[in-house]
Amino acid sequence: MSGASSPVLSEPEIGLTRRGLRLAWFTIGYNVVEGVVAVTAGAIAGLVSLVGFGIDSGIESISAVLVAMRLWARLRHGTVDEAKERRALRLVAITFFLLAGYVIVAGIRDLAVGDVPDTSIIGIVVLAASLVVMPLLAAAKRRVGMALGGDPLILADAAETRICVWLSVSTLAGLVLFQLTGAAWLDPVAGFVIAAFAIHEGIEAWHGELVETGDDDD
């Protein structure tokens, strides 16, 4: 259903598109709350990776807003302005690159200065919740996308959510290992992993190829 002259949606397609829209709105709401809590907890504890994770939640919200706008336009008009979509994706790509730059610079600074972050139980709880919610959300989005005949828009959104799962894994691993070992360098290293994911996402968003990320893993 890509292109400027999409066919009129059938009743089943309308129902599935509405479901995809609801999932996008849920993603926005969840990521906004998650991002605020993660950034606040990370700033208080001095945890670079947790702040970076919270900022990434904000970026995921921006991506979900873009998806919601597209799906809403599809429901209203049956067509999509491809030029506006590409410009929006490139704006998202730029925010990914800014995130990567922030995490890398902050991580290098912490390694050089030798700052020791505080522990953050709240941060661990937020990340653990993400490990429960995000895989279920990604799977639901993928089912909708596949039911729509491999819809690239919704499958791209599912790929974004799956990447958020891996970000949760890397950040949580860094925090838990710090709690167990007291090794402060683990937090900046976890931040570098987030930066790598952000750069990868940014490159794919810039080229409009997010749909290709992990869509053949079933």
What would you say this structure looks like, in words?
The chain has one domain. The chain is mostly helical and 218 residues long. The protein is 81% helix and 0% strand. The longest helix is centred in the N-terminal third of the chain and has 35 residues. It is elongated, with a radius of gyration of 18 Å.
In short:
The protein has six helices and no strands. By secondary structure, it is mostly helical. The chain has one domain (11-212).
List keywords for this structure.
single chain; 218 residues; mainly alpha; 6 helices; disordered N terminus
Quaternary state, please? single chain
Shape field: elongated
How many domains make up the 3D coordinates?
A: 1
Number of strands: 0
Ends apart, CA distance between termini:
22 Å
Question: How would you spell out the order of helices and strands?
Answer: HHHHHH
Count of alpha/pi helices: 6
If you average the pLDDT, what whole number results?
A: 81
